[in-house]
Structure to design on (453 residues):
Protein backbone atom coordinates (compact mmCIF):
# COMPACT_ATOMS: atom_id res chain seq x y z
CA UNK A 1 0.00 0.00 0.00
CA UNK A 2 1.27 3.41 -0.90
CA UNK A 3 0.73 6.15 1.61
CA UNK A 4 -0.60 9.48 0.53
CA UNK A 5 2.40 11.72 -0.14
CA UNK A 6 2.82 14.60 2.32
CA UNK A 7 3.21 17.04 -0.52
CA UNK A 8 -0.23 16.08 -1.79
CA UNK A 9 -1.79 16.83 1.61
CA UNK A 10 -0.06 20.20 1.59
CA UNK A 11 -1.34 20.75 -1.90
CA UNK A 12 -4.89 19.83 -0.86
CA UNK A 13 -4.84 22.44 1.87
CA UNK A 14 -3.35 25.02 -0.50
CA UNK A 15 -6.08 24.28 -3.03
CA UNK A 16 -8.88 24.60 -0.49
CA UNK A 17 -7.51 27.85 0.90
CA UNK A 18 -6.93 29.50 -2.47
CA UNK A 19 -10.34 28.39 -3.68
CA UNK A 20 -12.02 29.92 -0.64
CA UNK A 21 -9.88 33.03 -1.04
CA UNK A 22 -10.87 33.43 -4.68
CA UNK A 23 -14.52 32.91 -3.80
CA UNK A 24 -14.36 35.60 -1.11
CA UNK A 25 -12.58 37.90 -3.52
CA UNK A 26 -15.27 37.47 -6.14
CA UNK A 27 -18.19 37.78 -3.75
CA UNK A 28 -17.03 40.70 -1.63
CA UNK A 29 -14.27 42.52 -3.47
CA UNK A 30 -15.15 42.72 -7.16
CA UNK A 31 -17.72 45.36 -8.15
CA UNK A 32 -21.18 44.36 -9.33
CA UNK A 33 -21.43 44.77 -13.07
CA UNK A 34 -23.86 47.58 -13.98
CA UNK A 35 -25.93 45.99 -16.75
CA UNK A 36 -25.84 42.32 -15.77
CA UNK A 37 -25.93 42.58 -12.00
CA UNK A 38 -24.59 39.99 -9.57
CA UNK A 39 -25.00 37.06 -12.01
CA UNK A 40 -21.98 38.36 -13.89
CA UNK A 41 -19.86 36.99 -11.04
CA UNK A 42 -20.40 33.51 -12.47
CA UNK A 43 -17.99 34.57 -15.17
CA UNK A 44 -14.84 34.27 -13.02
CA UNK A 45 -15.25 30.60 -12.25
CA UNK A 46 -16.95 29.85 -15.55
CA UNK A 47 -14.04 30.89 -17.75
CA UNK A 48 -11.56 29.40 -15.29
CA UNK A 49 -13.30 26.04 -15.43
CA UNK A 50 -13.35 26.12 -19.22
CA UNK A 51 -9.66 26.96 -19.20
CA UNK A 52 -8.84 24.13 -16.81
CA UNK A 53 -10.86 21.68 -18.91
CA UNK A 54 -9.08 22.73 -22.09
CA UNK A 55 -5.71 22.38 -20.38
CA UNK A 56 -6.61 18.89 -19.18
CA UNK A 57 -7.64 17.72 -22.66
CA UNK A 58 -4.45 19.02 -24.23
CA UNK A 59 -2.51 17.25 -21.48
CA UNK A 60 -4.45 14.06 -22.22
CA UNK A 61 -3.47 14.24 -25.89
CA UNK A 62 0.16 14.91 -25.01
CA UNK A 63 0.14 12.00 -22.55
CA UNK A 64 -1.32 9.82 -25.31
CA UNK A 65 1.64 10.70 -27.50
CA UNK A 66 3.87 10.02 -24.50
CA UNK A 67 2.43 6.53 -24.19
CA UNK A 68 2.78 5.69 -27.88
CA UNK A 69 6.43 6.77 -27.83
CA UNK A 70 7.56 5.25 -24.54
CA UNK A 71 4.97 2.46 -24.05
CA UNK A 72 5.05 3.11 -20.32
CA UNK A 73 1.66 2.53 -18.72
CA UNK A 74 1.93 5.51 -16.40
CA UNK A 75 1.37 7.75 -19.43
CA UNK A 76 -1.96 6.02 -19.86
CA UNK A 77 -2.88 6.83 -16.27
CA UNK A 78 -1.93 10.45 -16.92
CA UNK A 79 -4.12 10.51 -20.03
CA UNK A 80 -7.08 8.87 -18.29
CA UNK A 81 -6.84 11.12 -15.24
CA UNK A 82 -6.58 14.25 -17.36
CA UNK A 83 -9.63 13.32 -19.43
CA UNK A 84 -11.71 12.50 -16.39
CA UNK A 85 -10.84 15.69 -14.56
CA UNK A 86 -11.22 17.67 -17.79
CA UNK A 87 -14.74 16.29 -18.27
CA UNK A 88 -15.75 17.55 -14.84
CA UNK A 89 -14.36 21.01 -15.53
CA UNK A 90 -16.05 21.09 -18.93
CA UNK A 91 -19.34 20.25 -17.25
CA UNK A 92 -18.82 23.00 -14.67
CA UNK A 93 -18.12 25.44 -17.49
CA UNK A 94 -21.27 24.48 -19.37
CA UNK A 95 -23.56 24.49 -16.31
CA UNK A 96 -22.22 27.78 -14.95
CA UNK A 97 -22.53 29.28 -18.43
CA UNK A 98 -26.16 28.18 -18.55
CA UNK A 99 -26.86 29.80 -15.19
CA UNK A 100 -25.40 33.02 -16.57
CA UNK A 101 -27.17 32.74 -19.92
CA UNK A 102 -30.66 32.28 -18.49
CA UNK A 103 -31.04 35.87 -17.18
CA UNK A 104 -28.68 37.51 -19.71
CA UNK A 105 -29.63 35.81 -22.98
CA UNK A 106 -33.02 34.83 -21.67
CA UNK A 107 -32.42 31.19 -22.59
CA UNK A 108 -30.55 28.29 -21.06
CA UNK A 109 -28.89 27.30 -24.26
CA UNK A 110 -27.66 29.07 -27.38
CA UNK A 111 -25.96 27.33 -30.30
CA UNK A 112 -23.03 29.62 -29.96
CA UNK A 113 -19.48 28.62 -31.04
CA UNK A 114 -17.81 28.32 -27.67
CA UNK A 115 -20.77 26.67 -26.02
CA UNK A 116 -21.28 24.20 -28.84
CA UNK A 117 -17.59 23.36 -29.07
CA UNK A 118 -17.44 22.69 -25.33
CA UNK A 119 -20.49 20.47 -25.51
CA UNK A 120 -19.07 18.48 -28.42
CA UNK A 121 -15.76 18.20 -26.61
CA UNK A 122 -17.62 16.64 -23.68
CA UNK A 123 -19.26 14.16 -26.05
CA UNK A 124 -15.90 13.26 -27.61
CA UNK A 125 -14.41 12.54 -24.21
CA UNK A 126 -17.48 10.62 -23.08
CA UNK A 127 -16.84 8.46 -26.14
CA UNK A 128 -13.28 8.10 -24.86
CA UNK A 129 -14.64 6.46 -21.71
CA UNK A 130 -16.95 4.18 -23.64
CA UNK A 131 -13.94 3.15 -25.71
CA UNK A 132 -11.88 2.46 -22.60
CA UNK A 133 -14.61 0.49 -20.90
CA UNK A 134 -14.84 -1.94 -23.79
CA UNK A 135 -11.15 -2.80 -23.78
CA UNK A 136 -9.71 -5.16 -21.21
CA UNK A 137 -5.98 -5.69 -21.62
CA UNK A 138 -4.20 -2.67 -20.12
CA UNK A 139 -1.67 -2.37 -22.96
CA UNK A 140 -4.25 -2.52 -25.71
CA UNK A 141 -6.53 -0.15 -23.83
CA UNK A 142 -3.67 2.27 -23.36
CA UNK A 143 -2.66 2.07 -27.01
CA UNK A 144 -6.11 2.58 -28.54
CA UNK A 145 -7.16 5.25 -26.04
CA UNK A 146 -3.92 7.10 -26.72
CA UNK A 147 -4.69 7.17 -30.44
CA UNK A 148 -8.21 8.39 -29.75
CA UNK A 149 -7.04 11.07 -27.31
CA UNK A 150 -4.59 12.41 -29.88
CA UNK A 151 -7.12 12.49 -32.72
CA UNK A 152 -9.60 14.20 -30.38
CA UNK A 153 -7.24 16.96 -29.40
CA UNK A 154 -6.42 17.56 -33.07
CA UNK A 155 -10.06 17.89 -34.12
CA UNK A 156 -11.22 20.19 -31.32
CA UNK A 157 -9.69 23.34 -32.88
CA UNK A 158 -11.14 22.29 -36.23
CA UNK A 159 -14.57 21.98 -34.63
CA UNK A 160 -14.24 25.37 -32.99
CA UNK A 161 -13.14 26.97 -36.24
CA UNK A 162 -15.95 25.38 -38.23
CA UNK A 163 -18.66 26.42 -35.78
CA UNK A 164 -17.30 29.93 -35.62
CA UNK A 165 -17.30 30.15 -39.40
CA UNK A 166 -20.83 28.76 -39.36
CA UNK A 167 -21.97 31.57 -37.09
CA UNK A 168 -20.15 34.43 -38.75
CA UNK A 169 -21.69 33.60 -42.11
CA UNK A 170 -25.11 33.25 -40.53
CA UNK A 171 -26.95 36.26 -39.18
CA UNK A 172 -26.48 36.27 -35.45
CA UNK A 173 -29.72 36.31 -33.52
CA UNK A 174 -28.39 36.75 -30.04
CA UNK A 175 -25.05 38.50 -29.71
CA UNK A 176 -22.67 35.67 -28.87
CA UNK A 177 -20.15 37.99 -27.20
CA UNK A 178 -19.64 35.67 -24.28
CA UNK A 179 -18.28 36.78 -20.95
CA UNK A 180 -15.23 38.73 -21.93
CA UNK A 181 -16.31 40.90 -24.84
CA UNK A 182 -19.85 41.70 -23.70
CA UNK A 183 -18.59 44.03 -21.02
CA UNK A 184 -15.30 45.73 -20.26
CA UNK A 185 -13.54 44.66 -17.14
CA UNK A 186 -12.27 47.07 -14.52
CA UNK A 187 -8.70 46.44 -13.29
CA UNK A 188 -10.19 45.00 -10.13
CA UNK A 189 -12.29 42.53 -12.10
CA UNK A 190 -9.34 41.61 -14.26
CA UNK A 191 -7.23 40.89 -11.19
CA UNK A 192 -9.94 38.67 -9.69
CA UNK A 193 -10.30 36.92 -13.04
CA UNK A 194 -6.59 36.17 -13.35
CA UNK A 195 -6.54 34.93 -9.76
CA UNK A 196 -9.47 32.61 -10.52
CA UNK A 197 -7.61 31.23 -13.52
CA UNK A 198 -4.62 30.50 -11.30
CA UNK A 199 -6.75 28.95 -8.57
CA UNK A 200 -8.56 26.68 -11.01
CA UNK A 201 -5.25 25.57 -12.46
CA UNK A 202 -4.15 24.62 -8.94
CA UNK A 203 -7.46 22.81 -8.41
CA UNK A 204 -6.96 20.99 -11.69
CA UNK A 205 -3.49 19.81 -10.71
CA UNK A 206 -4.73 18.72 -7.29
CA UNK A 207 -7.68 16.72 -8.61
CA UNK A 208 -5.51 15.30 -11.36
CA UNK A 209 -2.94 14.17 -8.84
CA UNK A 210 -5.59 12.35 -6.80
CA UNK A 211 -7.01 10.70 -9.89
CA UNK A 212 -3.57 9.64 -11.04
CA UNK A 213 -2.87 8.00 -7.69
CA UNK A 214 -6.20 6.21 -7.96
CA UNK A 215 -5.35 4.91 -11.44
CA UNK A 216 -1.99 3.69 -10.22
CA UNK A 217 -3.44 1.99 -7.13
CA UNK A 218 -6.16 0.44 -9.23
CA UNK A 219 -3.57 -1.02 -11.58
CA UNK A 220 -1.46 -2.38 -8.74
CA UNK A 221 -4.54 -3.82 -7.12
CA UNK A 222 -5.55 -5.64 -10.29
CA UNK A 223 -2.13 -6.98 -11.17
CA UNK A 224 -1.25 -7.76 -7.55
CA UNK A 225 2.00 -5.82 -7.76
CA UNK A 226 3.37 -3.81 -4.92
CA UNK B 1 9.03 -2.84 -60.03
CA UNK B 2 9.89 0.30 -58.11
CA UNK B 3 8.58 0.65 -54.54
CA UNK B 4 6.10 3.37 -55.39
CA UNK B 5 4.43 1.33 -58.12
CA UNK B 6 4.36 -1.65 -55.84
CA UNK B 7 2.68 0.48 -53.18
CA UNK B 8 0.05 1.69 -55.63
CA UNK B 9 -0.47 -1.84 -56.80
CA UNK B 10 -1.10 -3.01 -53.24
CA UNK B 11 -3.76 -0.33 -52.79
CA UNK B 12 -5.29 -1.32 -56.10
CA UNK B 13 -5.34 -5.02 -55.21
CA UNK B 14 -7.13 -4.38 -51.93
CA UNK B 15 -9.58 -2.10 -53.67
CA UNK B 16 -10.18 -4.69 -56.36
CA UNK B 17 -10.74 -7.38 -53.78
CA UNK B 18 -13.33 -5.23 -52.00
CA UNK B 19 -15.13 -4.54 -55.24
CA UNK B 20 -15.25 -8.23 -55.99
CA UNK B 21 -16.57 -9.01 -52.51
CA UNK B 22 -19.18 -6.29 -52.90
CA UNK B 23 -20.16 -7.49 -56.36
CA UNK B 24 -20.63 -11.06 -55.21
CA UNK B 25 -22.22 -10.41 -51.83
CA UNK B 26 -23.89 -7.04 -52.41
CA UNK B 27 -23.89 -6.34 -48.71
CA UNK B 28 -22.59 -2.80 -48.65
CA UNK B 29 -24.08 -0.43 -51.17
CA UNK B 30 -27.70 -1.72 -51.15
CA UNK B 31 -27.87 -1.66 -47.37
CA UNK B 32 -26.47 1.86 -47.22
CA UNK B 33 -28.82 3.02 -49.92
CA UNK B 34 -31.98 1.63 -48.36
CA UNK B 35 -30.95 2.91 -44.95
CA UNK B 36 -30.31 6.39 -46.37
CA UNK B 37 -33.76 6.43 -47.96
CA UNK B 38 -35.36 5.30 -44.72
CA UNK B 39 -33.69 8.18 -42.93
CA UNK B 40 -35.16 10.58 -45.46
CA UNK B 41 -38.64 9.24 -44.81
CA UNK B 42 -38.18 9.22 -41.04
CA UNK B 43 -37.07 12.84 -41.09
CA UNK B 44 -39.97 13.79 -43.24
CA UNK B 45 -42.42 12.49 -40.68
CA UNK B 46 -40.45 13.49 -37.63
CA UNK B 47 -40.00 17.09 -38.73
CA UNK B 48 -43.31 17.62 -40.56
CA UNK B 49 -41.55 19.51 -43.34
CA UNK B 50 -43.43 22.05 -45.39
CA UNK B 51 -42.44 22.19 -49.09
CA UNK B 52 -40.42 25.42 -48.93
CA UNK B 53 -38.62 24.23 -45.80
CA UNK B 54 -37.76 20.99 -47.56
CA UNK B 55 -35.77 22.73 -50.27
CA UNK B 56 -33.82 24.64 -47.66
CA UNK B 57 -33.08 21.50 -45.66
CA UNK B 58 -32.27 19.14 -48.54
CA UNK B 59 -28.50 19.62 -48.21
CA UNK B 60 -28.60 18.93 -44.49
CA UNK B 61 -30.77 15.86 -44.91
CA UNK B 62 -28.50 14.51 -47.64
CA UNK B 63 -25.49 14.71 -45.33
CA UNK B 64 -27.27 13.25 -42.34
CA UNK B 65 -28.41 10.35 -44.50
CA UNK B 66 -24.90 9.84 -45.88
CA UNK B 67 -23.25 10.13 -42.47
CA UNK B 68 -25.59 7.57 -40.89
CA UNK B 69 -25.63 5.20 -43.82
CA UNK B 70 -21.87 5.17 -44.28
CA UNK B 71 -21.32 3.88 -40.74
CA UNK B 72 -23.08 0.71 -41.86
CA UNK B 73 -20.78 0.37 -44.85
CA UNK B 74 -17.68 1.16 -42.83
CA UNK B 75 -18.54 -1.40 -40.18
CA UNK B 76 -19.39 -4.00 -42.78
CA UNK B 77 -16.16 -3.41 -44.67
CA UNK B 78 -14.00 -3.91 -41.58
CA UNK B 79 -16.12 -6.65 -40.01
CA UNK B 80 -15.83 -8.72 -43.17
CA UNK B 81 -12.06 -8.67 -42.72
CA UNK B 82 -12.47 -10.28 -39.34
CA UNK B 83 -14.44 -13.21 -40.64
CA UNK B 84 -12.19 -16.24 -41.12
CA UNK B 85 -9.34 -14.06 -39.81
CA UNK B 86 -8.96 -12.42 -43.20
CA UNK B 87 -7.45 -9.41 -41.49
CA UNK B 88 -4.59 -11.54 -40.15
CA UNK B 89 -3.94 -12.69 -43.67
CA UNK B 90 -3.82 -9.12 -44.87
CA UNK B 91 -1.49 -8.14 -42.08
CA UNK B 92 0.82 -11.08 -42.80
CA UNK B 93 1.25 -9.95 -46.38
CA UNK B 94 4.69 -8.43 -46.92
CA UNK B 95 3.34 -5.00 -47.80
CA UNK B 96 3.34 -1.63 -46.13
CA UNK B 97 0.39 -1.48 -43.74
CA UNK B 98 -0.49 2.06 -44.69
CA UNK B 99 -1.22 0.69 -48.16
CA UNK B 100 -3.87 -1.52 -46.53
CA UNK B 101 -5.34 1.57 -44.91
CA UNK B 102 -5.43 3.37 -48.24
CA UNK B 103 -6.96 0.40 -50.00
CA UNK B 104 -9.74 0.00 -47.44
CA UNK B 105 -10.36 3.76 -47.31
CA UNK B 106 -10.51 3.90 -51.07
CA UNK B 107 -13.11 1.17 -51.33
CA UNK B 108 -15.17 2.67 -48.51
CA UNK B 109 -14.97 6.04 -50.16
CA UNK B 110 -15.98 4.73 -53.58
CA UNK B 111 -18.94 2.75 -52.21
CA UNK B 112 -20.25 5.69 -50.17
CA UNK B 113 -19.73 8.01 -53.10
CA UNK B 114 -21.75 5.68 -55.32
CA UNK B 115 -24.56 5.72 -52.78
CA UNK B 116 -24.43 9.54 -52.85
CA UNK B 117 -24.60 9.57 -56.64
CA UNK B 118 -27.68 7.37 -56.57
CA UNK B 119 -29.25 9.51 -53.85
CA UNK B 120 -28.85 12.77 -55.77
CA UNK B 121 -31.55 12.19 -58.40
CA UNK B 122 -33.81 10.72 -55.71
CA UNK B 123 -33.35 13.84 -53.58
CA UNK B 124 -33.95 15.98 -56.65
CA UNK B 125 -37.35 14.40 -57.03
CA UNK B 126 -38.26 14.38 -53.34
CA UNK B 127 -37.19 17.93 -52.66
CA UNK B 128 -38.18 19.35 -55.98
CA UNK B 129 -34.89 20.91 -56.98
CA UNK B 130 -32.05 19.89 -59.27
CA UNK B 131 -29.33 18.39 -57.12
CA UNK B 132 -27.33 16.87 -59.97
CA UNK B 133 -24.90 19.73 -59.78
CA UNK B 134 -21.21 19.29 -60.58
CA UNK B 135 -20.19 21.63 -57.79
CA UNK B 136 -22.27 19.69 -55.31
CA UNK B 137 -20.69 16.46 -56.54
CA UNK B 138 -17.26 18.01 -56.00
CA UNK B 139 -18.22 18.92 -52.43
CA UNK B 140 -19.51 15.39 -51.83
CA UNK B 141 -16.18 14.10 -53.13
CA UNK B 142 -14.25 16.24 -50.66
CA UNK B 143 -16.62 15.65 -47.76
CA UNK B 144 -16.84 11.89 -48.13
CA UNK B 145 -13.08 11.69 -48.74
CA UNK B 146 -12.25 12.97 -45.29
CA UNK B 147 -15.26 11.36 -43.64
CA UNK B 148 -14.51 7.87 -44.90
CA UNK B 149 -10.78 8.05 -44.21
CA UNK B 150 -11.46 8.99 -40.58
CA UNK B 151 -14.28 6.45 -40.55
CA UNK B 152 -12.07 3.63 -41.82
CA UNK B 153 -9.50 4.32 -39.12
CA UNK B 154 -12.11 4.45 -36.35
CA UNK B 155 -13.88 1.35 -37.68
CA UNK B 156 -10.60 -0.55 -37.40
CA UNK B 157 -10.21 0.87 -33.92
CA UNK B 158 -13.71 -0.03 -32.76
CA UNK B 159 -13.58 -3.55 -34.17
CA UNK B 160 -10.72 -4.21 -31.75
CA UNK B 161 -12.95 -3.57 -28.74
CA UNK B 162 -15.46 -5.70 -26.90
CA UNK B 163 -18.33 -3.50 -28.07
CA UNK B 164 -17.20 -4.10 -31.68
CA UNK B 165 -19.06 -2.18 -34.37
CA UNK B 166 -21.57 -0.59 -31.98
CA UNK B 167 -18.87 1.84 -30.97
CA UNK B 168 -18.17 3.35 -34.40
CA UNK B 169 -20.88 6.05 -34.58
CA UNK B 170 -20.16 7.19 -31.04
CA UNK B 171 -16.49 7.66 -31.89
CA UNK B 172 -16.95 8.94 -35.41
CA UNK B 173 -19.77 11.50 -35.23
CA UNK B 174 -18.30 13.96 -32.73
CA UNK B 175 -14.87 13.81 -34.36
CA UNK B 176 -16.23 14.19 -37.88
CA UNK B 177 -18.49 17.08 -36.93
CA UNK B 178 -16.34 19.86 -38.45
CA UNK B 179 -16.32 17.97 -41.76
CA UNK B 180 -20.08 17.53 -41.67
CA UNK B 181 -20.69 21.19 -40.84
CA UNK B 182 -18.45 22.28 -43.71
CA UNK B 183 -20.07 19.82 -46.09
CA UNK B 184 -23.63 20.78 -45.15
CA UNK B 185 -22.98 24.51 -45.33
CA UNK B 186 -21.14 24.44 -48.64
CA UNK B 187 -23.77 22.12 -50.15
CA UNK B 188 -26.53 24.43 -48.97
CA UNK B 189 -24.83 27.46 -50.49
CA UNK B 190 -24.18 25.63 -53.76
CA UNK B 191 -27.84 24.62 -54.00
CA UNK B 192 -28.85 28.20 -53.28
CA UNK B 193 -26.70 29.27 -56.30
CA UNK B 194 -24.39 31.36 -54.18
CA UNK B 195 -21.05 32.47 -55.73
CA UNK B 196 -17.93 30.44 -54.92
CA UNK B 197 -16.53 33.22 -52.75
CA UNK B 198 -19.37 32.58 -50.28
CA UNK B 199 -18.31 29.04 -49.53
CA UNK B 200 -14.64 28.88 -50.41
CA UNK B 201 -13.61 28.93 -46.74
CA UNK B 202 -15.76 25.80 -46.28
CA UNK B 203 -13.97 24.19 -49.22
CA UNK B 204 -10.63 24.98 -47.60
CA UNK B 205 -11.87 23.42 -44.40
CA UNK B 206 -12.88 20.28 -46.31
CA UNK B 207 -9.49 20.09 -48.03
CA UNK B 208 -7.79 20.59 -44.67
CA UNK B 209 -9.97 17.78 -43.29
CA UNK B 210 -8.84 15.46 -46.07
CA UNK B 211 -5.18 16.16 -45.45
CA UNK B 212 -5.60 15.90 -41.69
CA UNK B 213 -7.58 12.66 -41.57
CA UNK B 214 -5.57 10.89 -44.25
CA UNK B 215 -2.45 11.93 -42.33
CA UNK B 216 -3.93 10.67 -39.07
CA UNK B 217 -4.79 7.39 -40.77
CA UNK B 218 -1.27 6.97 -42.09
CA UNK B 219 0.16 7.76 -38.70
CA UNK B 220 -2.04 5.55 -36.54
CA UNK B 221 -3.30 2.68 -38.66
CA UNK B 222 -0.32 0.52 -37.85
CA UNK B 223 -0.42 1.46 -34.16
CA UNK B 224 -4.05 0.40 -33.91
CA UNK B 225 -3.46 -2.96 -35.53
CA UNK B 226 -0.29 -4.08 -33.78
CA UNK B 227 -0.64 -7.06 -31.45
Amino acid sequence: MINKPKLLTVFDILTALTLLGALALILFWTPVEITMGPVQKVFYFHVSAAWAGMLAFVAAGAAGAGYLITRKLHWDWVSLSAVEVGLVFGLIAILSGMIWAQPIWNTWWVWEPRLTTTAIMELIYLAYFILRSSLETPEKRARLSAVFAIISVITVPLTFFSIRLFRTIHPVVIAPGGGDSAFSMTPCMLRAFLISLGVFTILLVDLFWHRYRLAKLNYKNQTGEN
Amino acid sequence: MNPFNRYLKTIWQIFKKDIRVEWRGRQGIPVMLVFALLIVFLFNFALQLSPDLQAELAAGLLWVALAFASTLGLNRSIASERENNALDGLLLAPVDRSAIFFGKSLSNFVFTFLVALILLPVFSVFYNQNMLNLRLIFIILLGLGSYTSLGTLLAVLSIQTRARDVLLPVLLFPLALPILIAAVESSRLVLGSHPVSDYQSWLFLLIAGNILFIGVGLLFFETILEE
Summary: The helical segments of chain A are 6-29, 42-70, 73-104, 113-133, 138-169, 178-181, 187-223. The CA atoms of residues 48 and 197 of chain A lie 5 Å apart. Chain A has one domain: 6-28+37-223.
